């Protein structure tokens, strides 16, 4: 994905530079006229193949035409004679072609024609002889002769019996004759072709549909039972409770007044939700870079604007997630360890967390791999895609093991790399927790040194491998992304800082901090300076013609911002907890964030589904501007939240309730709605556990973090 974008940008840059040349150097009138002749590509094509014969097939003399060649030729003959006699279907077939894109110098290099008109063509010639329209996106290197390394992407439509190779051959011959260029690349590939035939669902896709339908049915039945059979809520069986949309939505939408529970940091909800929004917003721009744009040049210019830094540094939102992850693990676990005198039931902790996170992830893998290819019907289905999800067939198990960031370069659902980092740090967390519990400040110092060591490791990796962070420096290798961004050891700093900060809060939990005005102002000033510097410091270097940053500068920026960002966040959390948050606190702690916060895990996993469906349904080039992006963002965000809500109800919540109930420890995630439920829970707890080991409380507590983790 990254590579694609970079190539695209480099092409765009080339275009910018060529248009910046003096116009008399750019193009001669002769050349321009020749290009203008392509104003109607379909017309040229029809004329060129007016009297199509076998010689037009361009078959090497060493072989005789095969069945497919002849079928394609026959259909082409039908097409051209149909056109000569004005048959509607033939006219339609050429009518649906794209033409030479308008506004080429604005960076418009796509003309998709009319996809639906093309694949809608079904002509029955005789009983056994039917001609179907096949739409392909051809890449025509027409501008190469002008020294512009851009392919024009033009939608073409021909009979389905002609393969991509055959179409490519026809186009090459025509271009050769018209502008005399020799082309040795494939102009049309089967991947970019579509007919109205749908691929059948494979076994796994059917399984996914059946599974989701069954879960949906269970939800419907349980909800109805809940309404009509169990007036007395305390008598609801476990299954009904787990699947009932009524019970689960109640839990989801119950708003808790801020500051009612001293153990809850209210502003984390706002931070979590804003980070989620930031992630989705950033990904929306990535989709825009992949999609055909009628003013690509504006994108190139956009990168030089200050605002673009907010988008291109959206990755800090994930650092926020990591920071929150570390913070919550330490606070909840230490609180519980105090009660248990330092005992940790580590396996139980792991199992709980795994069971809480994995069901919905597994469903997501099935969904992305099997259903997504069938959704979002359109000419760009293979082009505008965030990720290649067919690779899940090969690497799905790494994702389920949370090892995908190290084990493979073909991550199944690549944005889950974050889950891997977080899980791996969680696996290590008992070591840190015990160190903190046993040695207190010394343990914390040790963790701090570890954090510095890992940052040093990140810095050295960048310096020695010369991984660039900016596009100007050339290709951003996928390799660099894996080593710098996906790897736990290079991305642990925000989590560890959150962890240390959580320890600080825990150690001072009974203290009230009295700060004077000056310190509060100073705190906010420094915190905001850290946050804004992290985002905007590269702005001067973001000019395309600025001198590139040295490797040292880049490495320092990247390493230090991974520390500066979470440090800035520490103050925000601290200020909000101690009543120095003011406006920020009332905003971040608003109860309205709570429902979104609870489904943020599901929304994080599923938002790309919506982005990809919306992206691949495009029928024409989009117009790029920040306002346009905002509109797209709100539509994907709205749909993503809806999808996340559905997935939460049919997968996340039922599995969550079931796993908590069936595990040795008690306390179901949906918190009791009324006293009756508390009784019921107590009953279940009694029947399940003879002696509630204190350690299990930790495990439960940690498993609660999970639902609020993202
Ligand atoms: C096709 O045949 C017609 C009639 O024989 C002729 O006038 C026309 O020029 C031919 N077209 C091409 C492209 O050769
Ligand atoms: C037409 O396509 C088929 C299938 O790809 C291929 O075998 C054949 O060689 C092609 N014919 C020509 C003339 O390109």
Describe the structure.
- By secondary structure, the chain is mainly alpha-helical.
- It has two domains: 157 residues, no CATH class; 458 residues, no CATH class.
- It is built from 31 helices and five strands.
- Strands 1, 2, 3, 4 and 5 form a five-stranded mixed sheet that branches.
- Helix 15 crosses helix 25, helix 15 packs antiparallel against helix 31 and helix 24 runs antiparallel to helix 25.
- The protein is globular.
- The relative contact order is 0.12.
- The site of one 2-acetamido-2-deoxy-beta-D-glucopyranose has 9 residues, from helix 5 and helix 8.
Name its key features.
single chain, 710 residues, mainly alpha, 2 domains, five-stranded mixed sheet, 63% helix, 4% strand, disordered C terminus, binds 2-acetamido-2-deoxy-beta-D-glucopyranose, acyltransferase activity, transferring groups other than amino-acyl groups
Please describe the biggest sheet, giving its number of strands, its sense, and whether it closes into a barrel: 5 strands, mixed
Summed up, the helix count is 31
Q: In percent terms, what proportion of residues is strand?
A: under 5%
Radius of gyration: 30 Å
Q: What is the distance, rounded to the nearest whole angstrom, between the alpha carbons of the first and last residues?
A: 24 Å
The secondary structure category is: mainly alpha
Cofactors, ions, other ligands: 2-acetamido-2-deoxy-beta-D-glucopyranose
* Average pLDDT reading: 85
Principal-axes shape call: globular
Q: How many domains, as an integer?
A: 2
In the predicted model, the low-confidence regions spanning at least 5 consecutive residues are 666-710
Beta-strand segment tally = 5
Helix amount: 55-70%
Protein name: GH18938
Domain Nose resistant-to-fluoxetine protein N-terminal: 69-195
InterPro entries: Acyl_transf_3_dom, Nose-resist-to-fluoxetine_N, O2_lipid_transport_reg
Signal peptide: 1-18
């Amino acid at each position: 994905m990254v590579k694609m974008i970079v190539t695209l940008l480099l092409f765009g840059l080339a275009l910018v530079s060529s248009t910046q040349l003096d116009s008399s150097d750019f193009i001669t009138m002769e050349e321009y006229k020749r290009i203008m002749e392509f104003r109607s590509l379909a017309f040229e094509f029809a004329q060129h193949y007016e009297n199509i014969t076998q010689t037009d097939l361009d078959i090497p003399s060493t072989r005789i035409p095969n069945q497919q060649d002849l079928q394609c030729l026959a259909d082409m003959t039908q097409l051209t004679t149909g056109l000569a006699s004005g048959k509607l279907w033939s006219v339609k077939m050429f009518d649906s072609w794209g033409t030479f894109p308008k506004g080429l110098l604005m960076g418009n290099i796509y003309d998709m024609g009319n996809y639906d008109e093309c694949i809608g063509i079904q002509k029955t010639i005789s009983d056994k002889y039917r001609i179907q329209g096949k739409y392909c996106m051809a890449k025509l290197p027409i501008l190469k002769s002008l020294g512009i390394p851009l392919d024009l992407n033009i939608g073409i439509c021909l009979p389905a019996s002609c393969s991509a190779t055959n179409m490519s051959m026809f186009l090459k011959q025509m271009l050769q004759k018209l502008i005399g260029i020799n082309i040795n690349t494939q102009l049309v590939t089967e991947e970019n072709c579509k007919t109205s035939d749908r691929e059948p669902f494979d076994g796994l896709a059917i399984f996914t549909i059946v599974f989701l339908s069954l879960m949906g049915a269970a939800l419907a039945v349980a909800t109805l039972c809940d309404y009509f059979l169990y007036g007395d809520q305390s008598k609801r069986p476990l299954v009904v409770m787990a699947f009932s949309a009524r019970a689960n939505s109640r839990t989801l939408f119950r708003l808790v007044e801020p500051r009612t529970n001293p153990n809850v940091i209210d502003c984390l909800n706002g931070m979590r939700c804003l980070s989620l929004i930031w992630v989705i917003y950033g990904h929306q721009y990535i989709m825009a870079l992949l999609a055909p744009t009628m003013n690509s040049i504006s994108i190139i210019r956009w990168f030089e604007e200050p605002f673009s830094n907010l988008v291109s540094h959206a990755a800090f939102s994930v650092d926020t997630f990591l920071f929150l992850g570390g913070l919550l693990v330490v606070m909840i676990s230490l609180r519980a360890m105090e009660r248990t005198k330092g005992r940790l039931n580590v396996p139980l902790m792991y199992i709980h967390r795994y069971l809480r996170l994995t069901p919905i992830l597994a469903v997501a893998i099935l969904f992305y791999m099997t259903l997504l290819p069938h959704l979002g019907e359109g000419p760009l289905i293979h082009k505008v895609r965030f990720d290649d999800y067919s690779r899940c067939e090969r690497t799905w198990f790494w994702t389920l093991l949370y090892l995908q960031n190290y084990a493979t370069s073909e991550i199944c659902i690549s944005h889950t790399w974050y889950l891997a980092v977080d899980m791996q740090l969680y696996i290590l967390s008992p070591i840190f927790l015990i160190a903190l519990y046993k040695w207190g400040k010394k343990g914390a110092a040790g963790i701090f040194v570890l954090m510095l060591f890992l940052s040093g490791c990140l810095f050295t990796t960048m310096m020695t491998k010369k991984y660039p962070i900016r596009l100007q420096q050339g290709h951003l290798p996928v390799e660099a992304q894996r080593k710098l961004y996906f790897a736990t050891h290079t991305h642990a700093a925000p989590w560890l800082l959150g962890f240390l900060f959580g320890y600080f809060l825990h150690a001072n939990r009974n203290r009230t901090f009295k700060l004077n005005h000056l310190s509060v102002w100073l705190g906010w000033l420094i915190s905001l300076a850290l946050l804004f510097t992290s985002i905007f410091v590269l702005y001067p270097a973001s000019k395309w013609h600025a001198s590139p940053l040295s490797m040292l500068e880049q490495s320092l920026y990247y390493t230090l911002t991974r520390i500066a960002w979470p440090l800035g966040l520490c103050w925000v959390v601290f200020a909000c907890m101690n009543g120095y948050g003011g406006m920020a606190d009332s905003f971040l702690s608003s109860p309205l964030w709570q429902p979104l916060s609870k489904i943020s895990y599901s929304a994080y996993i599923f938002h790309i589904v919506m982005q990809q469906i919306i992206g691949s349904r495009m029928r024409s080039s989009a117009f790029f501007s920040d306002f346009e992006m905002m509109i797209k963002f709100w539509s994907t965000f709205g749909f993503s939240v809806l999808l996340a809500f559905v997935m939460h109800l049919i997968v996340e919540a039922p599995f969550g309730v079931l796993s908590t109930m069936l595990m040795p420890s008690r306390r179901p995630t949906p918190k009791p709605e009324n006293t009756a439920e508390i009784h019921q829970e107590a009953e279940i707890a009694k029947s399940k556990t003879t002696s509630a080991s204190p350690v299990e409380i930790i495990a439960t507590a940690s498993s609660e973090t999970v639902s609020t983790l993202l």
